[in-house]
Design brief:
The chain is 44% helix and 5% strand. By secondary structure, the chain is mainly alpha-helical. A two-stranded antiparallel ribbon has the order 1-2. Helix 1 (26-34) crosses helix 3 (51-66). It starts with 5 loop residues before the first strand and ends in a 7-residue tail after the last helix.
């Protein structure tokens, strides 16, 4: 599951996934989107981000969920 716009480094944000070259966690982007903020608002708040970075955060999360094992019963 390689995402060129997302990086995980122990020395950046305690190893949480961030947008490459920033300290903006993927989680923060996802929480802002879930709270109803649109991409334009997020980009205004974080001028170093691009629309592609926001889509990369969503794709990263989707890939994580897709890889989860589901247990029944």
């Amino acid at each position: 599951m390689a995402h060129e716009r997302v990086e995980i480094r122990p020395d950046v944000m305690f190893g949480k996934p961030v947008i490459r070259g920033t300290r903006v966690p993927v989680e923060l982007i996802l929480r802002k989107l879930a709270a109803g903020q649109g991409p334009d608002e997020i980009l205004r708040q974080h001028p170093r981000l691009t629309p592609e970075d926001i889509r990369a955060a969503q794709a990263y999360a989707a890939d994580l969920v897709a890889g989860e094992e589901v247990a029944f019963g």
